[in-house]
Specification:
The structure is a single chain. By secondary structure, this protein is an all-alpha fold. It is 56% helix and 0% strand. The chain has a domain of 63 residues: Up-down Bundle (Four Helix Bundle (Hemerythrin (Met), subunit A)), CATH 1.20.120. The model has no long low-confidence stretch (mean pLDDT 74). One of its GO terms (molecular function) is ATP binding. Keywords: Chaperone. This is Heat shock protein 90. Pfam families: HSP90.
Amino acid sequence: MERLMKAQTLGDTSSLEFMRGRRIFEINPDHPIVKDLSAACKNEPESTEAKRAVELLYETALISSGYTPESPAELGGKIYEMMTIALGGRWGRLEEAEATVSESSVEFGSSEGTVTEVVEPSEVRTESDPWRD
C-alpha cells in the first residue's frame, strides 16, 4: 500500500499518511553483528562508523522486508563504503598474488611448449533434421 501511495501523481499524499504500515525493527541481541555494534557503541559512543553501520543494518532490513529505501543511491554508496572498509584493499593484494602465481606457471608451461588445436565446425544435415525448412 505504501508503494501505491508514493506512486500517486495527483493529490496530497500527506492525508494518506495514516495508511502507511508501521515498521518494527526487531533486533536479535545474540547475533554477532549486534554484539559487535553494541561493543563499538559502548567503547566510542560518538563513533560515526557504528552509526553508519546501524543505518545500513536498518536499510538492509527494510529491503529484506519488502520496503523501498528513501534513497536507493545513498544506500548503494553506504554499501560500497562498507565493502571498502571490510576489504581494506585485500582484492588488490589477491590480484597481485594471482599474477605472481600465473607468471610462475607460464614460465613452467612455456618450457614444455603447448600447441592448441582449432577444430572448425562442419554442417551436418540429415533428412530428419527438425530445424530445416
